[in-house]
Design goal:
The chain contains two helices and six strands, in the order H-H-E-E-E-E-E-E. It folds into two domains: 43 residues; 88 residues, Beta Barrel (OB fold (Dihydrolipoamide Acetyltransferase, E2P)). It has a five-stranded mixed barrel with strand order 1-2-3-6-5. Helix content is 25%, strand content 40%. The radius of gyration is 29 Å and the shape is rod-shaped. By secondary structure, the protein is of the alpha+beta class.
Amino acid sequence: MKKNLIFIFTIFLVMIFGAFYFSKMAANFIDTKEKPSTLLTPTAALTPTPYPDPLGENFSKTGVLTNFDSKKEKKGDSWALVYEEQGKPALKVELSFSPESVCSLSQEDLKCSAVELPNGLRVKVEGVLTDKTSEPYVLVTRLSAFASDN
């Protein structure tokens, strides 16, 4: 009988210790959830941002013009620039033209509204990267074509 009481008392102590230990672990886990900076790992710190530049800042990139909408698998109504940055896959940003946007496809500068843009043209786009309902786009100030290699 005495051995049974000692056994039951030992199990009781183990259960109390376990409950105390796991409650402390849970409190620490919840505490670290509230402080995400303590969870930074080298891979998390090196994760690229979803956008190439901070929103609302100057944008100047060289790439290829496209009006192909990959979601609809056909030509779309809007233009985009596909470009590269070192260490990143191909990036794409939508382009928005204002009445003041200047396009230089040959020797002269024209308003982009008066120019027919060819698909696949290699260009340099300058403008302002802006946010349109969480999808970035570039408000184009100048679009300059590169000479053809042919």
